[in-house]
Write a structure and sequence with these properties.
The complex is a heterodimer of chains A (273) and B (265). With 273 residues, chain A is mainly beta. Helix content of chain A is 11%, strand content 47%. With 265 residues, chain B is of the alpha+beta class. Chain B has a domain at 159-261: OmpA-like domain (60s Ribosomal Protein L30, Chain: A), CATH 3.30.1330.60. Chain B has helices at residues 2-26, 40-48, 127-141, 169-184, 200-220, and strands spanning 159-160, 189-195, 228-234, 240-246. The chains are: A mainly beta (273), B alpha+beta (265).
Chain lengths: 273, 265
Amino acid sequence: MVNKKYTLLFALILTLGVSSYAQTTFSSWDWRDSSVVPVKSITQYNEFMQNKNPFPAKPRNAWEFSVGGGPSTITGDVNAKLGFGGSLTLRKALNNIFSYRLGYFGSYNVGGNGTTYTYGNGYYPTFTNVTAPSGTFTAFKYRNISHNLAVDFIASLNTFSNYRGDPTSNLYVLAGVGLGISGTEVDVNGKYYYQEHVPQSQLLAETNHQLFFTTFDVGAGYAYKISKKFNIAIEERITSPVKHVNYITGYNSQSGTKNIYYFTAFKLNFNLF
Amino acid sequence: MINKKILLIIGLVASMSINSHAQNNTSKNKTEPLWWINPNDYVYSELNAPKHMKMPKVVLPDADGDGIPDQFDLEPNTPAGVKVDTHGRALDTDGDGVPDYKDKELLTPQKCFPVNADGVGTCPESQCCKDVRNEIQKLIDEGGISKKGECSIASLPSIQFKGGTKLSKDAETILASAAAQLKASPSCKVKVIGYGASSKAAQQLSYDKVSAVIKYLVEKEGISETRVIFVYGQDGDANTVDLQPTTEDGPNSVPAPHPNLKSKK
């Protein structure tokens, strides 16, 4: 059922992309066009048109909506296998270089290894509905669903070309902060249970088996313009909890390696005219 | 639960995309996101084909100051103050090729072309003028009238001296007849020419002889002194004084060149 929906979604997106690709007749920014000038800048626009101000008013520019998906993983004491993630973002330019982006990022990862771990040494979470077995964990496994709501600031690395007009590709870097939400289930004797009673010093809150924590992220991406309305991009984003959160991969060894998300997104970007 | 959330998001995405797609054709009050715009586009398009730039006022050189810039001036050296046409050429009202400021005949009729350097034409003479002129010439040729300013006497005889400055009887007779001719032709003057230029004495002698002739003509024959022209000291036979009818002007008397060498009578 879900697969059908996904198929539908991608078909829809591709249709939109193709149709916008056909519409290449939009003119680029025209400094004489007062319709793109916000009301608060109309004074500057008028002064500019009368040659009293050398600079044209900054035009009202479109939001960019983006949907993306791709491989993701989490590193930690027990590295996750390659899972998948998705993203939905809204990006708005501050000027010709800097922009900000509001985004939701989600991922599903499964991890585990064949290592035998010993219970009772205090480094694993406790469980509500299961009595911790004595002895050892064998073939440790976990599965994790994470969400991240973030504000990213993006800097375009394109220079203002003196040799050609509008850019057709855009290389950018980003950095941001956000709220991370993680739910990890650990396999105990063939059944998955949510971990609980994670040390609160790592978290903002722990509610309904979900861990809430602050994150920061960095990333870089490359976008290629298909039309004035549509472009495609590939982006790598690395998200880390601000504090030393290390229960996301289900198990905390004595070394206590911090958990970090890696997400490579293939993005379809739409300019919302 | 999660599936429902995903479906919700998908629905949101789809609706936003479709909505934006629909708006595209009806209103466009935004530019592309600014990172897709090169702000140099405006700068270079203005450099290439200015549509907004406030250009400085063009000043065209006008070397001759006639109000027509050199670039369009077909006559770049028109003198100052001369009226010119739209091509900067000096006005030439009659079209004779001589501009008005040099033209002494501003409106030369075309039938009088070509004109001279002063723009004055050579008009063909009308038939009646030609007839009148021919008639007058005929009268002059027949001796009926003398043209003012012209002398009809062809020649006058010469006076011969015999060494001194005293006039002989023959000479006085010749002078009397010459004076009669001069009286008949009041427009004629007479040039009295004495010869002898070799020495101061010869010049003075020549002067004295001419003086004697003129004195006789004026005092004895009553010829007006203003009709006599005094010329002496020419190369030639010192004993001869020529009388030459003329209309020229000349000195009626001249001071003696060497009074101390005046010959004794």
